[in-house]
Specification:
The complex is a heterodimer of chains A (about 300) and B (about 325). With about 300 residues, chain A is mostly helical. Chain A contains 13 helices and two strands, in the order H-H-H-H-H-H-E-H-H-H-H-E-H-H-H. In chain A, helix 4 runs parallel beside helix 6 and helix 11 runs parallel beside helix 13. By secondary structure, chain B is mostly helical. A two-stranded antiparallel sheet of chain B has the order 1-2. The radius of gyration of chain B is 20 Å and the shape is globular. Classes of the chains: A mainly alpha (about 300), B mainly alpha (about 325). At the A-B interface, helix 6, helix 11 and helix 13 of A face helix 7, helix 13 and helix 15 of B.
């Protein structure tokens, strides 16, 4: 019985739910299943999906990162202000450095000072967000000649989204570091005893998460051509929601980036479909909140099922 | 020397007391208006909601949990109160009671999910944070972000804005929590659960009942905070209470309550809230951008927890000579 259950992929129920959701919306509104709407969905989801990919790795190690949206703001402001002066390459490098630096700082707080991830990143969230708002003076940076506008054209956001997801899925599934990430989340003590330093893996994961936040910000800048410090407010919640809805266990060690992709698809389709169906956008946050709870409860029940 | 080190490291409130003195001394030296009694009472009134939340969070963190939804629950309860008063003709006391009930229900949901279903406090309260804030938007209605209290609620506004009742309420809740933590068996249960949940369960403590009561109390008190916030501003905004959980958690942790549970100090949490309030007033008077204050609080939070982890390590290494505190 246990073996047979193991063969059912964790993502199957989520995929089923997504299919039903898409079918229902396509039947209810003929504007839903169109190429134009798919482009809109891709642009809507690109940034949160990239954040969610990084968050998946963080949650797989048993951690959490509340500061990603703040890191995104800080990194993207650095990029936008340099790009406004015509320094495109420097802007990209600065954004990557800021993102990786902030992520590294989180990792150090968590592994070297032994802070619980939620508290460490709650603190850095406010530090980074205030720093971003102070540095920009609350001003909106507008790129009149956006050198990365191609990132926002047509299906490009969707391709970037899929590319990042597949790359991360490959790393997690087929590389040594990827397997170590699962190992750290599964049982940190046995990982240490097998000669792998969990702290190195964790610092790596938080740094990668910061780097992905920077990438998410670049995509956002490509699509919007403008950036303001509080543009990404609440994105960390959307990312965590997608990861948890996608079936990744909040206790770490179990889950996948493909599940997260499904989670992103569900939250995006729900929001988009609800608006197309005439429901108001203000329901979105309450629905996302309830969805997080349901997903965690389902995960708990499933774990009790398999350990029985 | 070792004994002295051990003693001073065991006084949990010492760092926050020093910090508060330092902050106050700095601001009164550089800004003569800082020490004005009326102004200080004003900021105390403003921070009474934070104090209420910080005291409930002290209990929750002592039990080894965390609640990041309290700020959103404050917002939800404020919006519920304001829309009941301005859109229906229920009485003030009924509206307050309903608003308190909403807060208690949010706390009950948190507690039940954590204690009965065994889910992680972080995610449960994260989900409540999004849900309660979302419900506040839904109740406020499309495009509405501010609901004013009608003139018939002037009694509430007078109490909240002109009297010292909010401060008094916060102090009463703090005294109650202090008494419960140090004098009652329930308080010892809370600390025991935070120290070692498995051991607490094996010694016959009803862990899930204790936890549910603690989260319920936090929800009810957040409801009270919502009423006070609405009364103080004579309006409720859908953003009411945004970030309060951050200031309250920072106050609790800089006060000396251990993030790992099992140790708590209500007095320390109050001193922490006072420090946050002093920063607010000082920065406000000196005309410094509020963002600097948020950044300071973030750094204090990180510093406080870093200090706690190193304090624990030093105490453990000294513990073999002098016994654990």
């Amino acid at each position: 019985m246990r073996l047979r259950r193991k063969r059912i992929p964790r993502e199957l129920p989520t995929l089923g739910f997504l299919t039903v959701l898409c079918l229902a919306f396509s039947l209810a509104n003929k504007n839903f299943a169109t190429a134009a709407n798919l482009r809109t969905l891709g642009a809507d989801a690109a940034t949160t999906c990239i954040l969610a990919v990084g968050m998946t790795a963080v949650i797989l190690t048993g951690g959490i990162d509340l500061s990603v949206a703040a890191v995104l703001s800080l990194a993207t402001l650095a990029a936008a202000s340099l790009m406004a002066k015509g320094l495109t390459a420097q802007g990209l490098v600065a954004s990557a450095l800021v993102g990786a630096g902030c992520g590294f700082f989180n990792g150090v707080l968590i592994t070297r000072i032994f802070m619980p991830p939620i508290i460490a990143t709650l603190g850095t969230m406010y530090v980074f967000q205030s720093a971003a708002a102070l540095a920009s003076g609350g001003q909106c940076i507008v790129l009149e000649h956006n050198p990365i506008a191609f990132l926002g054209k047509g299906f490009v956001p969707l391709l970037v989204l899929l590319g990042t997801t597949l790359f991360a899925a490959g790393v997690l599934q087929y590389t040594r570091v990827g397997r170590y990430i699962y190992a750290v989340g599964g049982c940190e003590e046995s990982t240490r005893l097998s000669g792998i330093d969990p702290n190195v893996i964790k610092i790596l994961v938080y740094t990668a998460n910061g780097l992905l936040a920077a990438l998410g910000g670049i995509v956002m800048l490509g699509i919007g051509s403008t950036f303001q410090a509080n543009d990404a407010q609440g994105y960390e919640l959307a990312a965590i929601a997608a990861v948890v809805i996608g079936g990744t266990s909040i206790n770490g060690g179990q889950g996948s980036v493909l599940g997260t992709l499904l989670g992103i698809a569900i939250t995006t389709v729900l929001r988009n479909g609800a608006i197309l169906a005439g429901l108001e956008a203000r329901w979105a946050q309450a629905i996302v909140g309830l969805a997080i709870f349901l997903a965690v409860a389902v995960d708990k029940i499933r774990r009790e099922d398999t350990t029985r | 020397m070792k004994r002295f080190l051990h003693r001073s490291l065991s006084v949990k409130e010492l760092p926050v007391a020093l910090l508060l003195c330092g902050v106050c001394a700095y601001f009164s030296a550089s800004e003569p208006r800082f020490a004005d009694l009326n102004g200080l009472m004003d900021v105390a009134r403003q921070y009474s909601t934070h104090a209420l939340l910080a005291v409930s969070l002290t209990l929750i963190i002592a039990s080894g949990g965390i609640d990041i939804s309290v700020g959103s629950v404050v917002g939800l309860c404020a919006v519920v109160l304001a829309s009941l008063l301005s859109r229906t003709n229920v009485g003030i006391s009924t509206a307050c009671a309903l608003s308190l009930a909403v807060g208690t229900f949010c706390g009950l949901c948190n507690g039940a999910a954590i204690a009965r279903l065994g889910l992680q406090p972080v995610v449960v309260t994260l989900s409540m944070m999004a849900t309660a804030r979302g419900l506040a938007y839904v109740i406020a209605g499309p495009g509405v972000s501010t609901i004013s209290l009608p003139s018939r609620a002037h009694l509430l506004v007078t109490i909240g804005y002109e009297s010292n009742v909010p401060v008094l309420i916060a102090l009463i809740w703090a005294a109650a929590a202090y008494a419960v933590l140090s004098q009652s068996s329930f308080g010892r249960y809370v600390l025991a659960i935070g120290g070692n949940e498995q051991a607490a369960r094996l010694s016959g403590i009803d862990v899930s009942r204790t936890k549910i009561i603690v989260y319920c109390a936090a929800g009810a008190v957040a409801g009270l905070g919502g009423i006070l916030t609405a009364a103080m501003m004579s309006t409720a905004t859908t953003d009411a209470g945004l970030g309060y959980e951050f200031e309250a958690i920072t106050a609790v942790l800089m006060g000396g309550t251990s993030i790992f549970g099992g140790e708590a100090t209500v007095l320390g949490s109050l001193l922490g809230v006072a420090t946050a309030a002093a920063l607010n007033r000082g920065f406000g008077l000196m005309g410094i951008n509020d963002l600097w204050r948020m950044m300071c609080l973030g750094l204090i939070l990180i510093g406080a927890v870093a200090m706690e982890t190193s304090r624990r390590r030093v105490l453990t290494s000294l513990g073999s000579h002098f016994g654990t505190p």
